Amino acid sequence: MSWSPVGSSLIDVLWGFLALCFLLAFCAHKVWSRYEARGLYMLFQDLIRYGKTKQNLKRDEWLRVFDVPKRWFWHFYALSVCWNGLLLLLYLNFIFQHQSRPSWLTGTLEVLTGVPSADGQVPQLSTLLVQLLLWVHSLRRLLECLFVSVFSGGSMHLVQYFFGVGYYIVLGLTVLCSDHMGKGSGPLLSQLHWLHVAGFTLFIAASLLQHQSLVLLARLRTGKSGAVETLAHRVPHGGGFELVSCPHYFAELLIYISLALVFGGLSLTWWLVVLYVLFNQSLAAQLCHDLYISKYESYPRHRKAFIPFVF
Questions:
Q1: Is 60 in contact with 80 (CB distance < 8 Å)?
Q2: Where's the 3-oxo-5-alpha-steroid 4-dehydrogenase C-terminal domain (predicted)?
């Protein structure tokens, strides 16, 4: 994968814009939260919060019209499994059956990257691995939403819901955009690099951390038999929770960094995705951290919000 100039493609501009938006939202929250304002402030908070961080928000009734259940998170992962599974199958056909990709897909990639399709393009091992890992990640998260996590009556904004739906569609296309602009050559296995191994190792470690964190959160609401006993929020302990309030968010960042390594560390497009995830998860973690500190007087003060020993 080659490093392309900033602003050279629509997909880079899109991810850069999203990263900037969440950075500004994070800064605005840090400043604006000092004031008990109404109107625009409440709309802003309604749009950035979901789940437990939203339950005690003093909102006007008209804002509640746009609430949808947080448990609908599984829709995002179900869509990702189907959509990214389709893109993976199309890429496998491109590699092993030498079938050209559909015109609608190549046309979309040309618009997003600004790079015309070239005949005889060599399949990229990095792209195949990232597609596969992204699909595995989506499948795991879907199964966790359905069979591990215990959702309360938390909600999210309808805008957040549609954003999540669009996010996983664009994410799958972004993987192929990095492939579309790639310059790798040679047989597939000859492209194997130590960064592929490093990225895969980090992906496994981060996935295990995220799964462990979600299991610990679920156990706060279940008994020894596994049956749900309460939907109340409690202080989590154990695992990554001994260092940060949201280790599952930190693990999400590590997963995206691992995919950047699988891309060889040279895909500017994917690093912009990582930047977006950093600011997005930082905001979500800060909101959770603030809630824990305000709600529980005995909450461990040494815990950071998101990144161990840093933030």
A1: no
A2: 193-311
Q: Using an 8 Å Cβ cutoff, are 262 and 199 in contact?
A: yes
Say which DSSP state 228 is in.
B
H-helix or E-strand spanning residue 156 = strand 155-157
Hey, what amino acid is at 248? H
Q: For the ranges 80-94, 146-160, 174-188, which has the lowest average pLDDT?
A: 174-188
DSSP H/E element including 155: strand 155-157
Burial class (CB in 10 A: 0-12, 13-18, 19+), 57: exposed
Quote helix, strand, coil % in the chain, to nearest 5. 65, 5, 30
Q: How many CB atoms lie within 10 A of CB 229?
A: 13
Q: Give me 133's structure tokens.
A: 């890992």
Of 21-25, 150-154, 222-226, 264-268, the poorest mean pLDDT is in 222-226
**pLDDT band of 56, cuts 50, 70, 90:** confident
CA distance 287 to 56: 12
Element (H, E) at 69: strand 67-69
